[in-house]
Amino acid sequence: MEGNIANLYRECWEKNVGSVPPELSDLERWIRVAKLWSAVEFLANARRNPESYSEQTMAHLVRELPGYVDGVSMV
Q: In this predicted structure, what is the pLDDT of residue 45?
């Protein structure tokens, strides 16, 4: 999904500005890193205030996060 988002952003940039700046070459990875950071912040907030967060959501994140981290390092 992040690759599709990055490609759409690059296409839009090319149409409106004309050339894609070099820093966008790693855009997919940075989108994944931002999502990972959001998940970590979510877990930290849930740790501080567990009654406000679904146990199912927490279990899902904890289960899926290691695979997502591996995906970030491979991109």
A: 92
